[in-house]
Amino acid sequence: MEGARGSGADAATAPYGRAVAYREKLPRRWTVATVAVLTGWVAYQGSVLLPDDSTLWYVMLGLSAFFALVLNAVPISKRVYHRIRLRDGQLTVGRETIAVDSLTAESIREASEQPTDAEFAAALASRSPEELTRLRQASRATPPPRLVGGGWSVPLGMEQIVVETVRGEALLIATHDREALLDALTRARQV
């Protein structure tokens, strides 16, 4: 009984956001499909080449492993640099951890009102060349936000949100599920 009372007391005195837990699932269809096709190919080659040409089969096995690595480099890098977890008031993106209370509530609210990438591209397409020139000049005046977790840019197939820290640093977070992440951040940032 005492353990139950102790955990309840900790939950009541814990800072806001500690109870919110979120883990973003990364898609696995591409990885499963490529590994299945290459495994089938190696099994077929094994049935044809083994036991007579085992050296050639080992070469085919090595080449298949190399192709599996090449074909899955982007999903692997997404797992390393852009895996998102929110637990105990800490937002972990890849190998970087940020305290949720260091993010401003206003920037999270603004991020939920930002257009999606598709909406933004459609809005840019409807602009005149003069408007685009003015937008480029205005964007050059402000520094770009820092991509959280590492990497050069937002990977293909991922959306992005921009939030700000209490120190004024703009952070760019790449995500697969924009609405769920913003909902979890909003709940974690509220009292």
From TrEMBL:
Membrane-traversing stretches: 30-50, 56-77
Keywords attached to this entry: Membrane, Transmembrane, Transmembrane helix
Superkingdom: Bacteria
Name of protein: DUF3093 family protein
